[in-house]
């Protein structure tokens, strides 16, 4: 290649240098094909131990990204053309150059698999956000699909629930504004299925950088999540064994989420979200026990004498006060049905987006109701201090 077009090639590489830093967690490989006459000479680059390892012409050498680019440019002087393919999760950047010119293309990087007729029949009534075919790797890893890519009979409902969660979080992300990167904290993460699916969706569908932190108190689920992240090659995730009441984030948090954390574990997630000044909080509460044993409302005792009504009213008080207090801390709050109550009665999602420092009217209403009902919710206790 002539010096003029090698100089143009260098300009494209300069842009890639910055990207290689920002998107380091998403890097997959580089493929280089030099051509001289009819002969092709192929090199492959992988990232190992913070070094770019190039295998080319029978030799393997380690480089920094800057030195790798310098080497590739120097080698280009010896060939008629170059085809440089930079692959990261969700995107492939293709740079092609010869003595006539240099051009760059940004390509989709989805490995779409064929969908069998049974799976197609089961999913035909919904336009999925996380689609079978394109998202097969992550759907297989979390057990929705078999190794052959067929949807499991007993996982169709779970797949629908997960996809609906992604739909609701997608709307939340759009309400956060035009952010290039999203950091999500998954509280009481368990097996982290939602984090893995959202990781796929945000990076490979929305084309945004993202980082996930999963917190749980179980060694087993933390190790399981780490293994799944390794299997998928998802380097933009960390999983930490920690009490939610003691965890202090080391980076700014955009979204705190929690799905079906039992009883006051949901309050721990809410408290952590407010303490860490998360821009958005989304929780789907599970069982409610705390307020059931606390509240008194003598005026409706003739109704509450029935245990099922007393329990349901406790659920309503618990999530109502959580929503109201979240408003008091400056969040715009909405409460929606996450999934059909036919699937599970624990189907409410509380979503909040931070809009102001506080809402005095909502705080006053919260404290008045708290006094009226004689309750002392855990959420409030976890906002101002870390529990010892």
Q: Can you offer a commentary on this structure?
A:
With 388 residues, this protein is an alpha/beta fold. The protein has two domains: 107 residues, no CATH class; 213 residues, Rossmann fold, CATH 3.40.50.150. It contains twelve helices and 14 strands. The protein has a seven-stranded antiparallel β-sheet with strand order 4-3-2-1-5-6-7. A hairpin with a 2-residue loop joins strand 1 and strand 2. The longest helix has 22 residues. The radius of gyration is 26 Å and the shape is elongated. The N and C termini lie far apart (66 Å). The model has no long low-confidence stretch (mean pLDDT 91). Pfam families: Methyltransf_32. This is Methyltransferase domain-containing protein.
Summarize the structure.
By secondary structure, the protein is α/β, with parallel strands linked by helices. The chain is built from twelve helices and 14 strands.
Features:
alpha/beta; 2 domains; 388 residues; Rossmann fold; seven-stranded mixed β-sheet
CATH class of the largest domain: Alpha Beta
How is the biggest beta sheet arranged? Answer: 7 strands, antiparallel
Q: Can you count the beta strands?
A: 14
Poorly predicted regions? none
Strand order of the largest sheet: 4-3-2-1-5-6-7
- Gross geometry: elongated
Number of helices: 12
Could you please say which CATH topology of the largest domain applies here? Answer: Rossmann fold
Helix content: 25-40%
Fraction in beta strands: 25-35%
Structural class comes to alpha/beta
Helix/strand order: HEEEEHEEEHHHEHEHEEHEHHEEHH
CATH superfamily of the largest domain: Vaccinia Virus protein VP39
| First-last Cα distance | 66 Å
